[in-house]
């Protein structure tokens, strides 16, 4: 099969297209072999290309062998996909060959920027019937990252979100465009920030208040707003201490960040010192919010079959739609990485493989 691989960490020059890679084999009874029709490129792919998270991911790859010297290379990146089931493990009862599925690939596994990938059956769900593979591939990773941040950590649900005020930082990116739609589907009130070029996009997705950071003073505009029940910060903004000031006091309000320094600390300091450093960092964030009865929380992308199925329902009800900025051919994956790395995304970047 064809697969984009890296044989070392670095920039785009480390990515090479192999046309003679082996089709991955099913090794566990609950695994599924999927023919990938489309996959998206996410910021996590850019970071992992440079080595982000490799210390912890390699421990997981070696099944807990902290001191194993087995190399992770060649490594295939790509964290989500849409495709067709080719084969299933003997314990898989929910899916069969020929089913159209969408899903995610855990970071310690070989990824989806290839013609085939093997995933656990718990990491996929049936693809929404009203989406093409390209459209479907744009959603799983950002969808489940938002599910972790807003539902699991932020404690928003379809039954309690109505009337709550949520600030979404950077509303025009992959995370932001999905977050706006999920919150609106659940009845929340959304304020977001973006550039001038993206104002109409986020308004069209349902944002109630849009602050253009190119033409407006974001901090001034936020001070004019009522305080928020939850702030979603996908950028780990240097101004997050200021953002805490815009949370409602003593109302269980939360600032949730989805790019905490946990993996970076482990890469930099080692496993044990990195964990200790992360606990210290989190403690500092918690203390900053606690004085006003607020909380600062870290959220991590987590595979969730329940999340995928709930998101699929919202997509089929047309309460959430894919926001695809640009589609690249599989052979042009390097351009997709360059485009995403340049920043200022307005939606998702997708690779069409089949």
From TrEMBL:
Keywords: Membrane, Mitochondrion, Mitochondrion outer membrane, NADP, Neurogenesis, Nucleotide-binding, Oxidoreductase, Transit peptide. It catalyses: 3-demethylubiquinone-10 + NADH + 2 H(+) = 3-demethylubiquinol-10 + NAD(+); 3-demethylubiquinone-10 + NADPH + 2 H(+) = 3-demethylubiquinol-10 + NADP(+); a 3-demethylubiquinone + NADPH + 2 H(+) = a 3-demethylubiquinol + NADP(+); a 3-demethylubiquinone + NADH + 2 H(+) = a 3-demethylubiquinol + NAD(+). PROSITE patterns: QOR_ZETA_CRYSTAL. The keyword Membrane applies. Pfam families: ADH_N, ADH_zinc_N_2. It comes from Lottia gigantea. This is NAD(P)H oxidoreductase RTN4IP1, mitochondrial. It is found in: Mitochondrion matrix; Mitochondrion outer membrane. SUPFAM superfamilies: GroES-like (SSF50129), NAD(P)-binding Rossmann-fold domains (SSF51735). The lineage of its organism: Eukaryota, Metazoa, Spiralia, Lophotrochozoa, Mollusca. One of its GO terms (cellular component) is mitochondrial matrix. Its main location: mitochondrion. SMART domains: PKS_ER. Pathway: Cofactor biosynthesis; ubiquinone biosynthesis.
């Amino acid at each position: 099969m064809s697969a984009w691989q890296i044989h070392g960490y670095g920039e785009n020059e480390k990515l090479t297209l192999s046309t003679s890679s082996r089709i991955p084999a099913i090794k566990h009874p609950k695994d599924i072999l999927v023919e990938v029709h489309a996959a998206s490129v996410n910021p996590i792919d850019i970071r992992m290309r440079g080595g982000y998270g490799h210390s912890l991911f390699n421990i997981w790859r070696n099944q807990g062998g902290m001191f194993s010297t087995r190399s992770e290379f060649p490594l295939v990146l790509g964290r989500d996909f849409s495709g067709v089931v080719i084969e299933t493990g003997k314990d898989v009862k929910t899916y069969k060959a020929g089913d159209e599925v969408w899903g995610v690939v855990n970071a310690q596994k070989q990824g989806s920027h290839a013609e085939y990938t093997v995933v656990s059956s718990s990491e996929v769900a049936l693809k929404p019937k009203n989406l093409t593979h390209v459209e479907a591939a744009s959603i799983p990773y950002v969808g489940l990252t938002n599910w972790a941040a807003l539902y699991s950590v932020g404690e928003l649900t379809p039954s309690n979100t109505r009337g709550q005020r949520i600030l979404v930082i950077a509303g025009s990116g992959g995370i932001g465009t999905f977050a706006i739609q999920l919150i609106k589907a659940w009845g929340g009130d959304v304020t977001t920030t973006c550039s001038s070029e993206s104002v109409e996009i986020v308004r069209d997705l349902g944002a109630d208040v849009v602050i253009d950071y190119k033409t407006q003073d974001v901090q001034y505009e936020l001070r004019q707003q009522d305080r928020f029940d939850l702030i979603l910060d996908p950028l780990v903004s240097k101004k997050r201490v200021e953002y805490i000031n815009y949370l409602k006091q003593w109302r269980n309000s939360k600032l949730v960040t989805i790019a905490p320094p946990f993996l970076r600390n482990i890469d930099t300091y080692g496993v044990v010192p990195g964990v200790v450093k992360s606990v210290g960092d989190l403690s500092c964030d918690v203390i900053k919010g606690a004085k006003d009865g607020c909380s600062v929380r870290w959220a991590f992308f987590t595979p969730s079959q329940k999340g995928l199925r709930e998101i699929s329902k919202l997509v089929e009800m047309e309460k959430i739609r894919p926001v695809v900025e640009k589609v690249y051919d599989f052979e042009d994956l390097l351009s997709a990485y360059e485009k995403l790395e340049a920043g200022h995304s307005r939606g998702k970047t997708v690779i069409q493989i089949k």
